[in-house]
Specification:
Elements (H helix, E strand, L loop, with lengths): L1 E2 L1 H7 L4 H8 L3 H8 L7 H11 L3 H4 E2 L2
Length: about 60
Amino acid sequence: MKNRLKVLRAERDWTQADLAERLDVSRQTINAIEKGKFDPSLPLAFKAARLFKLTIEDIFQDE
């Protein structure tokens, strides 16, 4: 699954650790999601969407 997390995070000048803290996950989880090695759970995707004030589809795209 493709995602825009890295871009959205960079626009806010957040580190992976900053985003992980805001989403209550590990930095390694953020890293894996950004690299496409791990797909987030639906609750985590909703949490990210709320954090960035976007829809899930605006952040995550099925390949």
